[in-house]
Amino acid sequence: MAGHQLIAIGSYFEWDREAMSSEYALHEVPNADAALDLPAELRAQVRAIAFKGHTPFGEKHMESLPALGLIANYGVGFDAIDIATASMRNIKVSNTPDVLNDDVADLAVALLLAQSRKLIEGSTWVRSGEWPNKGELPLNRKASGRRAGIVGLGRIGREIADRLAAFKMAIHYHSRKPKDTPPSWTYHADPVSMARDVDYLFIALVGGKETAGYVSKEVIEALGPDGLLINISRGSTIDEPALLEALENGTIRGAGLDVFNNEPNIDPRFLKLDNVVLQPHQGSGTIETRKAMGKLQRDNLAAFFAGDELITPVN
Ligand code: NAP
């Protein structure tokens, strides 16, 4: 234990805790509101926090830390943090981009394969001991060689598209502007027109207010009855009630979802559906990547305290 005071908000792995406490006087709290209860003398001294989790960190939290200069976020998605207020108060925010792209893209492809090839049902088929009685698993659907559309060709979206190209798929994408891509990829200015032209829709947008409901009822309807929707971004990017309705009515064939509104207390209607594969927001959840995320968070903290440029600034 040494050095600057550091509040770590959220639940950290032992390797992160050890690394942070070897550099800083570490004060761990489970969530942002719990930081409000720390002694006022401590809060007055704190210049940086390590932030982890999805519960909001807003004005009242920033006000309670008058010397705050950095919120070092663990994760690439920073939608829990009120960036506009942070910027107004001259508080820098950093995140952990790129180091998690592979894992999240891998999970997106895994969700497509699990959904098309019925991997969860196949596993249950064998484990239940019913294989000798029931015989062959009912036929499922070919995954390769079809048309995939990516909503949001950012860092993770691009990794998803590159993987799907290796599955012999025609790649379509929607971003706010065309990107530098292989010439065979098709750009769509309108997500509805793209959804109409593809079999699979992958959502890789940032979360937050600006993209809330971006994948609208119209986009979902345009995907059509043979379409699969895969979401690894945030629950908020999709009109979730419209998605539930489409899945219940078979307006689309199915979905693979790692993210939801109101996690972990997701809408119970999802649990009744047999045309969705559900994951507990585990896109970046490998030991390798979580270690890399923790290290990048700490590297940003170290840069801040050294007075250097942040490595991965957000604002
Ligand atoms: P990124 O490189 O910043 O890409 C984000 C995409 O969102 C870009 O394509 C961007 O569009 C689009 N976008 C941003 N603001 C928009 C707006 N106002 N309207 C329309 N589109 C907008 O981010 P990334 O590193 O790929 O990460 C994407 C998201 O994945 C993260 O923000 C996070 O929420 C999520 N994520 C989930 C997990 C998980 O565990 N499931 C793990 C990591 C990340 P343009 O292409 O037009 O710029």
UniProtKB/TrEMBL annotation:
Origin: domain of life: Bacteria
Domain D-isomer specific 2-hydroxyacid dehydrogenase NAD-binding: 109-283
Signal peptide: none
Keyword annotations: NAD, NADP, Oxidoreductase
GO molecular function, one term: hydroxypyruvate reductase [NAD(P)H] activity
Domain annotation D-isomer specific 2-hydroxyacid dehydrogenase catalytic: ranges: 40-315
Gene3D superfamilies: NAD(P)-binding Rossmann-like Domain
InterPro entries per record: D-isomer_2-hydroxyacid_DH, D-isomer_2_OHA_DH_cat_dom, D-isomer_DH_CS1, D-isomer_DH_NAD-bd, NAD(P)-bd_dom_sf
GO cellular component labels: cytosol
This protein's record includes keyword NADP: yes
Protein name as annotated: 2-hydroxyacid dehydrogenase
